[in-house]
Amino acid sequence: MKSKSRYLITTSNHLTWKYDRPVLFLGEWCKKYDENLNNLNYEIVKPYGIGYKNRDKDISKAREIEKKIIPKLSNILNNTHNLNFSEKYWKILFYPWLRRYVEVMINRINNIMLCFDNYKISESTFFNDNYNLASKDSYEAILKYDDDVWNNILYKKIIEKLNIHNFKKNIIDYNYQLNSKKKFNLKKFLFFLLLDIFNFFTKLFYKNSGVYFDPYLSLKDKIHLNFHLRQFPFLWNSSRNLNFKQKYNNELRELLRAKIIQVKYTDKIEEIIFDMVFELIPMSLIESYQYINNISNKLFLPNKPKFIATSNAFDYDELFKFWASFKIEKQNVKYIILQHGGNYGTHRYINPSVEELNADKFITWGWTISNNNKYIRGFINKTKNLNLKKKSNPSKFVLITEDLHHRYWTYDSHFEYAQKYQSIKKFIENLPAPIKNNLLLRMHIADKKSNFNMHDRLIKSFPNLNIEFSTNNYLSTISNSKIVIFNYDSTGILELLSLNFPFIAFFHNKTDNLRDSAKPFYNLLEKEGIIHYNVESAIFKINEIYENIDKWWESDNVQKARDSFCKKFARTSKNPGYDISKIIHTIS
């Protein structure tokens, strides 16, 4: 395969491209859909990490590295900030970022190794190092994993750490600045002012109230919940902006790096992950730690909360994480996390999730794990108040597609997305005219802006295809639908099962992404034609039932399969506020 020397292109930024020689794209993400590459002599590096065997191997490696790095990272952060806190405290702060960091590095390092092992590289271009790879916080890190400049510089550093020098490296100047300045928003300012005033007075009279942050529970159910807990609610919104003014401290990070690299490694991949962890760790944990900690201590939240419960603030909300981790550390408060979407308890590679590991108790939508009292059987807390009423004569067949994943997985998510596009295209091509003419495809708004641009590809193949984006009202779309079709294992599957609304779904990877314990329940749905493990089966089923969908959906066998699945993964409650309060009473 090394017969012809090629110029390596690592990103879609054309400042790093050459057009007068054979080139090698490091992956599908380097090409934009609307680019004319007819005159370019190019190849694409084989995608890394595809297939369940490769993913099993990489995820196993990632978890082993996590186990090694967590205690060392916690100890060094304690010494850096003159603290003596537990691993649990630090894991609440850094574990969501760390998991993604380790998986990103496994992908990027292997991607480079695969490239240089199989291709002869003559030259490549990289941006200068006037750009630090560390993000401000956990959320900004996710954005950087998709960024051309960030990835280009990371690839350069990985190549250097792999001691690959037998090619020419061009360095170009690039003054990159992430636009972090936010305009003053009067409405947002007044909203948070009212929120703080409300919480201030609540704190005066209810200093020991439990804290429950869940955007999916309706206001009515939140009132019921707090009434049965005999407390007044504290209100929280995760969209507060932190004004990071601290500067990246390279000297300090080099000192921290020297402390963590003094370990034995199983291979070069593990060595690089340890070596670069303090170069990439968010500023919220180093330079901005004291700043965020000071703000979190001034929040109008209980001094001694009975419990802390959340469904989504455990990842990106730095203020919540700082406040909660301190209370949990110093007061031994129970940390309760509620399931907030699909794939929990079923997905092979989110097993267990970071939030499950960090929580004292994890409230599921129905599933539990034998001999593990951390998991408590709960229910979907977001569908009871959905006003989903099917119109008397619905006209649409709604196909909901998966969005392009951020690049924080061990495998090449862009390559897999391209394969899913082919399945969607094949599905639409084989629909009978009565369905195709009334098909509405709903996709995430971010897909239109991605390099792959599924929207324009589909419009080119199907000029009359009706497409809407996720910004449109979801319930309005569904209520005017005869049936919903998913091309992935969506949270919407659990929601529609619990609402008893007809749908079918086809999975690109068959059962590869499912845990063994979940497969029998998915197979129940597959047997009745609800779930399909290939696009051909889904095409056959929709052709078979489209003239009388309700007759099929309401049949005894379909309903029995639905009931069995819901009892395990999509339980419901007629009074969520009261039922959650009962669960919390048993915990706290």
Written account of the structure:
The chain is an alpha/beta fold. The protein folds into three domains: 52-180 and 245-285, no CATH class; 186-240 and 299-384 and 573-587; 396-569, Rossmann fold, CATH 3.40.50. It is built from 22 helices and 16 strands. It has helices spanning 52-80, 87-118, 138-145, 148-161, 186-205, 219-228, 250-260, 268-280, 289-297, 318-331, 354-358, 413-429, 433-436, 445-449, 454-461, 474-479, 491-499, 519-527, 535-545, 549-553, 556-569, 576-587, and strands spanning 5-9, 23-25, 42-44, 120-127, 168-172, 211-213, 307-310, 334-338, 361-364, 375-377, 396-400, 439-443, 466-469, 481-486, 503-506, 531-532. The strands form three sheets. The chain has a six-stranded parallel β-sheet with strand order 13-12-11-14-15-16. Helix 10 links the parallel strand 7 and strand 8. Helix 1 (52-80) packs across helix 2. The longest helix is centred in the N-terminal third of the chain and has 32 residues, at 87-118. It is globular. The mean pLDDT is 91.
